[in-house]
Amino acid sequence: MAMFSLLTRRFGTGIPKLTSRIGFSIPAHTGAISATRRTFLTTARLQEPAAAKTATRATGKKGVPAAKKKPTATKRAAAKKPKAVKAAPKKRGRPVTNPKTDSGPAVPKVPKSHQPPTRPTPPFIIFHNKFMAGKSEKSKSVEETQAISKDSASLWNTLTAEEKQPFYDEHAVLKIEYEKKRADYWQNTPKSVILAINKRRQHDGKNKIHRPGSTTDPKPLPPFFRYFKEFRSSPDAAAIQAVGSGVRGDSVTIRMAAEAGKRWRELSDAEKEPYKRSFEEDTKLWRARTEQARNSA
């Protein structure tokens, strides 16, 4: 069909020359038919050039360069997240409350006259108090007090056992008085006072006080302390006591206990058996007496 249309068109263009030679005319509708017929070879293609499109996009309107886009708003700086704070480890035991800041009910203080008697002063503290009393000038700062305490401690370590004995004797007298006062206190103090004292001590974060064991019938000594009691009356313990304090300032009692412990560990099981057997027998008798006294009360 395409070839026929092409031949028809070529043939149509050459008709005027042919008619002039031959001398006849072709009808007008033949040229009209050929003029209205188009093929893919004669039809023009409509296509915009790629360069024009690119230029239009870059410039926006024709001949006008596209304006740069302005930032609409500045980006806000990201807020820094606060670092997570680790919670403090919980302390064991009961929480300590402050009576000044505690919002709970106020716990009344117990007068000093209702408190149990204080423990006797140790031998070294007795010596230190007398050493401080001998000073003509009192310490005016913490550093001076610490320096005086160091001087008294060094002087105490240089004393022999005989020179320390008066302070131990004074401590023994104070201990006897303390035991008498303690026995009278626990025998005559009502239970309501003890409860009030423990309530206040618990409010202040202190340990409660408890009624001590029977002083008339104490618990039997364990096996090692039975051996230590015998060792203190031996000649070796007397030699240690004659030497006095050690090089490191250890007291006579501590050095005697260390030597007794060393010898106790060196004993065999057969040598330790008498002390263990006597402890078990005395413990059975003590429990029977305690149970009998409890039932009678």
SSE layout and pairing:
Layout: H1 2-13, H2 15-22, H3 28-36, H4 50-59, H5 123-133, H6 142-158, H7 161-188, H8 191-203, H9 223-232, H10 235-243, H11 252-266, H12 269-296
Helix pairs in contact: 1-3, 5-6, 5-7, 9-11, 9-12, 10-11
Describe this structure as you would to a colleague.
By secondary structure, this protein is mostly helical. The protein is 57% helix and 0% strand. The protein contains twelve helices and no strands. It has helices at 2-13, 15-22, 28-36, 50-59, 123-133, 142-158, 161-188, 191-203, 223-232, 235-243, 252-266, 269-296. Helix 1 crosses helix 3 (28-36). It is extended, with a radius of gyration of 58 Å.
Number of helices: 12
Task: Calculate Rg over CA atoms.
Answer: 58 Å
Proportion of helical residues: 55-70%
Strand runs, count: 0
- Rounded mean pLDDT is 74
Per the principal axes of the C-alpha atoms, what is the gross shape? extended
Regions with little confidence, pLDDT below 50 for 5+ residues:
18-22, 30-35, 52-56
Give the end-to-end Cα distance, rounded to a whole number of Å.
139 Å
Q: What is the succession of H and E elements? A: HHHHHHHHHHHH
